[in-house]
Amino acid sequence: MAPCAQKVDYRFEFERRLGWRDAPFMLSIDTSWTDPNDGDMAVAWTRSFWEEMHDTNKGRVYLNFDGDAEDTEATMRASYGDASYERLVEVKTKYDPTNAFRPNKNIPPMAR
Hints:
Elements (H helix, E strand, L loop, with lengths): L1 E2 L21 E2 L12 H19 L15 H8 L1 H14 L17
Antiparallel strand pairs: 1-2
Helix pairs in contact: 2-3
């Protein structure tokens, strides 16, 4: 867990590229193991811990540290904020209507 600098929270929400810069801390769950047989247990523990922390993050993820976060509209919308998400959908629809740039956490274009 690392503290976040409050100075990044100087603009109105609709002007930000990423939403929710008001978080006082950033939590990164970095799980590792040495025995290959422990993989399922370690991943299960990590997912359980993430679920326990869910109430504190409101479903938001810092997209540079998204790990195995679900690539869902709800996750992306929560992470960017509604206004920014809608603006990104418009940009995606205009400049990438075929969704060619989708390997990352994706915001799909509007269906035509």
